[in-house]
Amino acid sequence: MSNNCELRAIAIYGFPIAHSLSPVMHNAGFKELGVNYTYLPFRVHPADLKDAITAIKALDFKGANITVPHKEEALDLLDEVTEDAFIIGAVNTIDNVGGRLVGYNTDCRGFVLALKEAGVTRLNKQKAVILGAGGASKAACVGLLREQVKRLVIANRTLRKAELIRDNFKKSFPRAKISVCPLRPEELGSEFEDCGLLVNTTSVGMNNDCLNLPLDSLNKDALVYDMVYNPPKTKLLKRAEKLGLKTQNGLDMLLYQGVLGFEIWTKRTAPAAVMKEALYKAAYTK
Ligand code: ATR
Prior knowledge:
alpha/beta, six-stranded mixed sheet, 11 helices, globular
């Protein structure tokens, strides 16, 4: 960190926050480009989120990232939000544009960039099955819908939540083919048959659990994507690998949502390779 008085801060607000890998990733990128920004984590209690957002202006931070559990609440505390953030109902990136706070959701496009890095092409020819109907699922779904995915199936334990998302997205993407499915092997089996992309957005996998999924019904060239990145290979990814399917965990999504945020704040091309190296080192070196 330099002593330059022009140094500007970018914050990340979460609760908890100590585990966040974003400071390492962004500070590596700022150093690489020699830009006068520093990225700082703040543990913000939900009751203090409004004050913390106001502080972005008061302290003239260049921007912020917003993480769990604040992404939804932050949406209503900003001066402006992008269409993606509005549709998803959550903000993960804030840019302070001369005292005006603009909210973005870079998770959604970050997810698509991670898929592309994993070799997924021509999403408009793919049927995707998304497991889960929380915030992460909504970001992934909007990313896929923006890429004009051929068909989108939202599978969730609580079917009603998937139905609400479907109904909401149909208003923004009237021509998209979106359906829902209970998170049960019997129903998923037939949905998997012509599916080229399976995405787990539930937290199942973090604690070494595994959803009961009929993976052998998937297309042989399907990609199984798990947003969980710790452990790096969940039971779901290990099972998929054994079946010869392509697999990818969620760390590149974290990278690319950060790359996009970096570019919003600095208006420069992010040094993605440097940020990736720092991120992977922080995530997987004990
Ligand atoms: P996030 O914002 O990270 O997506 P969330 O909004 O809490 O987190 O959503 C968690 C998702 O994981 C939900 O879809 C949840 O299913 P329900 O809607 O039925 O609660 C899903 N989930 C969590 N634990 C699960 C489990 N043990 N089995 C199946 N789905 C689970």
